[in-house]
Design brief:
The protein is mostly helical. The protein has 7 helices and no strands. Helix 2 runs antiparallel to helix 3 and helix 5 crosses helix 7. The protein is globular. It starts with 10 loop residues before the first helix and ends in a 13-residue tail after the last helix. The mean pLDDT is about 95.
């Protein structure tokens, strides 16, 4: 697969990316558990078919100590026993928040379940993260940014 355009090699793309990356620092520095953050990034990227983000976030999760089993089963999280109830609530919110066009949006049940497991700041970080990873997925899918070359921590 060949990229259509290198967003980081373009003045507008690089400026936009600088701002969106800085918003990720707010989420990364929040109390939302790091495991939840990586699982959410992986799940949204699977739904959106973003090879670049899947490459990055599966490798970063593994480098941070996440097990291969949990990384490999994210796509079938509903049919597994390896995620906590809080992680499952975050993954459900991710699924619904990523597939907005496929439904009527995020259900009250999914929101209430997430609110049982996360405080208000963590919920806001979770919502922000779902929005952010979907933006990155769209950037990479539209520009055909390929996966496969990422090294863990490359953009840290």
């Amino acid at each position: 697969m060949e990229s259509r355009i290198n967003p980081m090699g373009n003045e507008i793309g690089a400026a936009w990316a600088k701002h969106i990356i800085s918003s990720n620092k707010v989420i990364a520095g929040s109390t939302l558990p790091k495991a939840v953050q990586e699982l959410v990034k992986i799940r949204a990227s699977q739904i959106n078919g973003c090879g670049g983000c899947l490459d990055m976030h599966t490798k970063d999760a593994a480098a941070a100590g996440e097990s291969a089993l949990r990384i490999n089963l994210v796509g079938a999280w509903r049919e597994t026993t390896v995620y906590t109830e809080a992680e499952r609530a975050a993954l459900e919110l991710t699924d619904q928040g990523t597939r907005l066009a496929d439904s009527t949006g995020v259900t009250d049940e999914a929101w209430a379940n997430a609110a049982k497991h996360f405080d208000e700041d963590q919920l806001m970080a979770l919502v922000g993260l779902i929005c952010l990873i979907n933006a990155f997925n769209r950037l990479n899918v539209i520009t055909r940014t390929p996966g496969g070359e990422y090294q863990p921590g490359q953009y840290a």
